[in-house]
Amino acid sequence: MKRRNRIVTGLRVGAVLPGLFLLWMGFVAFRGVSAIPKQSEMAVVFGTAVTAKGQPRPALQERLQEGLRLWRAGLVRTVVVSGAIESGNRRDEARIMANWLMDRGVPEAAIIVDSHGNNTWLTALHVARLHPQGAVVVTQWFHVLRAEWALERAGVSPVSGAAPFRFRPAELWYLFRDSVALPVYVLTKTPPG
């Protein structure tokens, strides 16, 4: 009888956990697609892969366009471009992002280049060291909540988000990944000091 009760309990838990995770994914998605940028000192455009020829891929172009829109609208004074130096082609994502913005009229003085933003947490730590009076994270919808949390955890306040209005079916995988990554961040990332 006890064994049967354990099996029934295990089946119930097994049925509930996936449902809870789907609700969590829905919340992460909702927060991303409903993000509203607020007037801040800076926009933080998170990097992603560039082409072998040194051009932003479509997702990165969309992020850059959103950052440019915020700057042109006067919602931010400075744009931080943060990315890695790619291991395969040695392209500096942040420098490529800065050049893209300068080609569209953003003065170099209004751009901060972070070529060592190898992941969301490192970018957050680098931005926190700048002591901004608020920041807008600029990234794809599935990444907004984790990016906002990371900046807040690192000490930046207030933080809001902005995401391009574009959806690709492949982004559902990234939604799943970010829905797992945020709880991992909550459990493992400690603010400086």
From TrEMBL:
Residue ranges annotated for the DUF218 domain, each copy included: 42-168
Record Gene3D superfamilies: HUPs
Residue stretches in coiled coil: none
Recorded superkingdom: Bacteria
Protein name stated in the entry: YdcF family protein
